Amino acid sequence: VWSYAEYFMVCIYHISATELTRIDALQPRFLSDIGLDEKRAFLEFSCAPLNPRLDIAILGLLHKCNLGRCHPSLSSSFPRDPIPRTPSAIFPPLHDMQLFDLHHFTHFPSLLHNSIFDQIRIYNLLAQSIVARSDVHQFQSELSAVVRKQCLLGNPNWMYCLSCRHVGHVYTIS
């Protein structure tokens, strides 16, 4: 069942926040019926909520494009940044596979929200050790470990730690 649902993640990712909330409510309701909360279901049974699954799927697709392992027309939609930002006192060091971020060059950045292009900002914040993975499955496993770590640390927003839909990312994600 999971594989069928995961297949459509890119489509689901682009729906409105209102519709996403309706879909996301299905799993907590089911877990409640069987006596589990989302945190326990994730930590003990690797049953992640929809939001981190969506984010990990999209980041995996971006990584696959960045590695040149998908169709050239798709990869060309997500080119590497020709002038990566250099670290400074304000900006932390970033990985060496930065993708070009359209936010800096559009007059309507709100058009990029809730799209795969918005998730480029999160991809560019990932730690070098994560993006260095040449296997997309290992890359996504590393992302799952990031979410798991945030959950174990008691971060109340653990399920949104890889999400561009929620404000609060001003650090390198490791």
N-to-C SSE string, H for helix and E for strand:
HHHHHHHHHH
The amount of helix comes to 40-55%
Output mean pLDDT: 82
Over all CA atoms, what is the radius of gyration?
16 Å
Low-pLDDT ranges:
none
Q: Could you give the distance between the termini?
A: 30 Å
Going by helix content, strand content and strand pairing, the class is mainly alpha
The helix tally amounts to 10
Walk me through this protein's architecture.
This protein is mainly α and 174 residues long. Helices cover 48% and strands 0% of the residues. The chain has helices at residues 2-7, 9-13, 17-24, 26-33, 38-45, 50-66, 72-75, 120-125, 128-131, 136-152. Helix 6 (50-66) runs antiparallel to helix 10 (136-152).
Give a short summary of the structure:
With 174 residues, the protein is an all-alpha fold.
Question: Main traits of this protein?
Answer:
single chain; 174 residues; mainly alpha; 10 helices; globular
Question: What is the secondary structure topology, with strand pairs?
Answer:
Blueprint: H1 2-7, H2 9-13, H3 17-24, H4 26-33, H5 38-45, H6 50-66, H7 72-75, H8 120-125, H9 128-131, H10 136-152
Helix pairs in contact: 6-10
